[in-house]
Amino acid sequence: MNIIKGFQGFLPEEVEQRRFCEERIRKVFESWGYQEIDTPTLEYFDSLVPGIGPELKSQVFKLLNSEGEIMVLRPDMTTPIARLAATRLASSGGNIYKFYYLNNIFRRVSNQTEDQQEFHQAGIELIGLNNRLADAEVIAVAIQALQHAGLENFYLDIGSASFFNSVLEQLPLLPEQKRTLRATIMNKDFVQLEWLLSRYDLAKREQEIILCLPHWRGDESIIQEAKNMFGQSNPSVNQALQEIKEVYDYLKIFGLSDFILVDLGIIRNFDYYSGIVFEGYTQYSGSAICGGGRYDFLCRKFGRDLPSTGVAIDLEKLLPILAFKQKTEQKALVNNRYFIRYREDLLALAYCLAQKLRNENKQVEIELSKEHSPEVIKHYLKSKKIRYLIDVQSKDLTKVRQYDLETEQEEQVAYE
Amino acid sequence: MNSMNKSPFLTIAVPSGRLFQPILDLLQSTGYFGKLEYNLEKDRHLIFFDQDRKFRFIITKPKDNPTYVEWGVADIGMIGKDILWEEKKDVYELLDLHLGSCLLVLAGSRSKEEIMMSIERKIPLRIATKYPNISRNYCLRKGIYGEIITLFGSVELAPQVGLADVIIDLVSTGKTLRENNLKVIDEIASSSARLITNHISYKTKHEQIHQIVQVLREMVEQKG
To answer: Considering A268, A299, A327, which residue would you say is the last residue of a domain?
Structure first.
């Protein structure tokens, strides 16, 4: 049977792992006052396209409806949420919206190593505020969500999308040259970058500033160093650095600065980022597990000026790192799972007992076939991690035989 | 920053094939990597260490080299630019090692004028190559109506037996082309070995990788 490349089905154990993680993340999001939001899976290409940059545009799944109009599967959550916020939210000024989502997104990834095309993301968007405390809060929520999901030894690097642009703006170059430099940096091709810079009419110092960009990384002292190097002559660079410093200071107040490093060379591929950007990573994964930042001009493209910031956690990146730990946790039988066998004429009684236990928040299964051997049943119970086997053999529910698969003991239990 | 580097050694992906020995010689000549002993002819194991066991070297098929780096199982790699163009992996390209320099060319047995004429007339040009992605991009850029035939090696054979009109391939001395009666029609790009790194390794093992870039850069510049 063929399935579409990059779209995967998940068996219960696999779904269970993701849900386990999602539920813990959901609790964190809700504990900070974020509310769940949902967007259509399919939208008109025209209604999303103002917010999708060229990088994402090439990865969008496109479909045609019967009128020949182009529809797209949402390629991220931030763009549709921005569209929803700009078009549907009450227009009274000064409102703050805190949204979270646990959803799937679709991207046509041309890269051969990543076969996957459907992804699961957990994230938040904080809409309606442009200040550094809001930036810091989103980062703090991301850290706590990763912690509660069970991740250890991770870091978040914060930088600024406007930092590099401001450095670039200041250079005495033609617009086209600036575009080429930007594209080269986006491609992370520092060999080409060096070659380009040597051909452009730039002072040695200016060349070095650009080439050093990926090395501007470390604790907060980096900010001051960078200020000394670029700041004096360029107010917008100075401002970008000041913003990073403020966010860092807030995170210090929250007691989270151990998780934070400053990276002025952060290159995030989406075009909508306008201020603070960040990405989270561990040494166990070759790519970032979460990322986000400020996107103040995205909602404007959909008709309303709403400064915003957000983060998305990639569950496909996170889960494999957590998998080993969870597997050992999940081996144990589940205490509130029951299986009820019954004498053939006692189905009504067994059913009553099952309902009673279900009302007590227990997970109860009734034997659905009498044709299975005890071995088959035992195997089934194990596979479902069911702890208790109840055998209803008489009408007297005060003396029910109950087998505990964990202790391998049989006991007599009184049910009303 | 090295505090987060918990694994005891840095993993370096080296491609087998023509670049292997030049790369090993370059690493050796810096003195930074200690004594490296591996004989591509005799040895069959694909992982080896330096004498002080500070670095772990893995030997990859050239084309696979950036894949190991992209996934982060190797922290750094060394590979020809032609492969990076072709494979388009998400890796940081840090340094031109100026090793194994060669040209990526369009070559054929017919004269340049003849080929150009048929390109202008939009007659489909059959191109045999090991680089389908590069070839497709080249055709797009030049407005060539190309039909690409992907081969795994000995591409020079294709025009001689009528499988293709032209080839897109790497040329270092031009000897193979001459012996197979092929002439260069267009020079597409020049390629040489590059030092690449994984995005996250570049963060978590920054100091070590930065040092390696410095020592290699010095050595490369010394050689001129």
So the answer is: A327
State the sign of the Cα–Cα–Cα–Cα dihedral A116, A119, A120, A122: positive
Mean pLDDT confidence for A280-287: 88
Total domains in the fold of chain A: 2
Is the CB of B72 less than 8 angstroms away from the CB of A263? no
Using the predicted structure, report yes or no on whether residue A218 has a pLDDT greater than 50. Answer: yes
- The range of the structural domain enclosing residue B122 comes to 102-190
pLDDT in the model for residue A119: 93
> In A, which residues are within 8 Å of B91 by CB distance?
188
Residue A171 has pLDDT above 80, yes or no: yes
CA dist list (Å): A343 to A252, A348, A390, A394 = 65, 10, 11, 8
Contact B92 A214 (CB under 8 A): yes
By Cβ distance, the residue of A113, A215, A281 closest to B200 is A281
Within 8 A of A157 by CB-CB distance, chain B residues are 203
> Could you tell me if B90 and B107 lie in one domain?
no
Q: Are residues B200 and B97 in the same domain?
A: yes
Is residue A319 domain-shared with residue A396, that is, in the same domain? no
Contact B88 A111 (CB under 8 A): yes
Distance CA B40, CA B154 (A): 22
> Are B96 and B198 in the same domain?
yes
What residue in B sits closest to A217 (Cα-Cα)?
A: B203
Among the partner-chain residues B6, B7, B200, the one whose CB lies closest to the CB of A287 is: B200
Query: Residues A174, A47: one domain?
Result: yes
Domain identity same for B87 and B151: no
For residues A238 and A309, state if they share a domain. Answer: yes
Instruction: Give the structural domain span for A33.
Output: 12-327
Substitution target in A287, A290, A318, A321 with the highest count of B β-carbons within 10 Å is: A287
pLDDT at A113: 47
Tokens representing B148? 């690409």
Q: Retrieve residue A292's tokens.
A: 């986000």
What mean pLDDT do residues B67-84 have?
94
Same domain, B13 and B61: yes
Which of B93, B194, B186, B88 is CA-nearest to residue B133? B88
Which CATH number belongs to the domain containing residue A356 in this structure?
A: 3.40.50.800
Is A402 within the bounds of a domain?
yes
The pLDDT score that the predictor gives to residue A325 is 59
Q: How far apart are CA B127 and CA B123, in angstroms?
A: 12
Where do the H-state alpha helices sit in A104-234? 132-149, 161-170, 175-186, 190-199, 204-212, 221-226
Question: What tens digit of pLDDT does each residue of A64-112 get?
Answer: 999 999 999 999 999 999 999 998 886 666 689 999 999 999 988 765 4
**Closest by Cβ to B6, choosing from A215, A283, A286:** A283
- In this prediction, residue B3 carries a pLDDT of 32
- Mutant choice from A151, A156, A190 vs B, greatest count of B C-beta within 10 A: A190
Note the pTM of the prediction, 2 decimals.
Answer: 0.84
pLDDT for res A328: 54
Pick the residue from chain A with its C-alpha nearest to B2: A218
CA–CA gap between residue A121 and residue A39 (Å, rounded): 13
Q: What is the ipTM score, two decimals?
A: 0.80
Mark out chain B residues that contact chain A at CB-CB < 8 A.
1, 4-7, 67, 70-73, 87-96, 194, 198-204, 206, 210
